[in-house]
Amino acid sequence: xxxxxxxxxxxxxxxxxxxxxxxxxxxxxxxxxxxxxxxxxxxxxxxxxxxxxxxxxxxxxxxxxxxxxxxxxxxxxxxxxxxxxxxxxxxxxxxxxxxxxxxxxxxxxxxxxxxxxxxxxxxxxxxxxxxxxxxxxxxxxxxxxxxxxx
Length: 150
Fold this sequence. Notes:
mainly alpha; 0% strand
């Protein structure tokens, strides 16, 4: 029962903080005026994708917390989460695609490092992070393209 509570707390906190950040950093006129690459998805896709990813991230975080609270994997999980939560305020709030690119690259590195370290210990967490890694790799390419086009 205790583990179930840990899963619930991780998922609720990650989804709630992500939603709060998203609501307070919506793409506005500034973002609409930017030149974007041909592969830029429609704005409506980001909310559902991030919500699903945040659930997966929360579950992986809970699994890692249960296994070893103070370990390297948990530190990587928290580091990528901080970087994740910083990205939208920097990109949209500060209107800084360059600043956001500086954030998303180490975020992607932390995500990949988390996956590498959990692969032998907790393959489920690695698999939970796989869609997240793919999406952040895509987002990194999108962010870099926006920097180059503007």
